[in-house]
Sequence to fold (224 residues):
Amino acid sequence: SAVISQKPSRDICQRGTSLTIQCQVDSQVTMMFWYRQQPGQSLTLIATANQGSEATYESGFVIDKFPISRPNLTFSTLTVSNMSPEDSSIYLCSVEGTSGTEAFFGQGTRLTVV
Amino acid sequence: GIQVEQSPPDLILQEGANSTLRCNFSDSVNNLQWFHQNPWGQLINLFYIPSGTKQNGRLSATTVATERYSLLYISSSQTTDSGVYFCAVHSGAGSYQLTFGKGTKLSVIP
Fold:
């Protein structure tokens, strides 16, 4: 298994500002994943973050809006830039367990943009 | 890409009742997981079950990979079972990202 610490757990932000979400894993992992869950919806993958290379973004998500850092094998950050109310969502980071099968998730960051 | 459909979308149960949640997927998968999202938003792993049957207490799951569906059984439901249940699959060879269904929202009432 993997234990993931994600913070902040929630935040209320003004439109036009940026928020950086941190994700710390208790073991070294090759890939970390960032998901967005809009209100009442399912999870959508934003990007895959590999250590030492640029993140790979899914269709509809761009680096200027969601810059990601991956400085080492246990840590990653996602920034939500120039926020608007439409960015109000739960953001979750995820990793695969050591067996390479199950996925594990952080506690999530509940973001409200006003 | 692969499509994941869950049913029913909403379910209301009396405490103590049993239920079956279904997940259909459109292509062969090498990874299928069930998650429970609690009211605070946290996703909890229930089962990793690309095929076969597993049980954990009051919960059990069965995946019939050849027929592209999985079932999650909840017996003797409790109010703490309330939340959203998601099925998620790996899209295929070389793909490490999960594709999620839309979930089943379960409400267990006393």
